[in-house]
Amino acid sequence: MTIQLNHTIVPSRDKAATATFVADILGLGAPEPFGPFLVVKTDNEVSLDFLDTTGEIPSLHYAFLVSEAEFDEIFGRITEAGLGYWADPMHAKPGEINHGDGGRGVYFDGPDGQNLEILTRPYGSGAP
Description:
The protein is of the alpha/beta class. The protein contains two helices and eight strands. The strands form two sheets. It has a four-stranded mixed beta sheet, with helices on one face. It has a four-stranded mixed beta sheet with strand order 5-8-7-6, with helices on one face. The protein is globular, with a radius of gyration of 15 Å. InterPro entries: Glyas_Bleomycin-R_OHBP_Dase (IPR029068), VOC_core (IPR037523).
């Protein structure tokens, strides 16, 4: 058996709103309930399991590898929604897209401060 990430828990102030936001912006299927979670499934069978919390939500990073066409679609939804976006995880390059490794990448915030990223090439996979 190879080791694969299966799921991760995403703490949220409002799991329905946050799960729906992520599913909609990425163009994924609607969140599905499972126990105390709302689950968003990705195409590589990894799920994001959104859970309501009343405590402090840490700044967590979730990166999604997408095709060039999917990048265009998702980036269109980001800009249509009027969301801020950055070329870097520290949010020091606002309104920019990075072109690391010959691809494209952009960071944007989720409803509870999640640091979300879409990228078309894994870092370290291509041209500088």
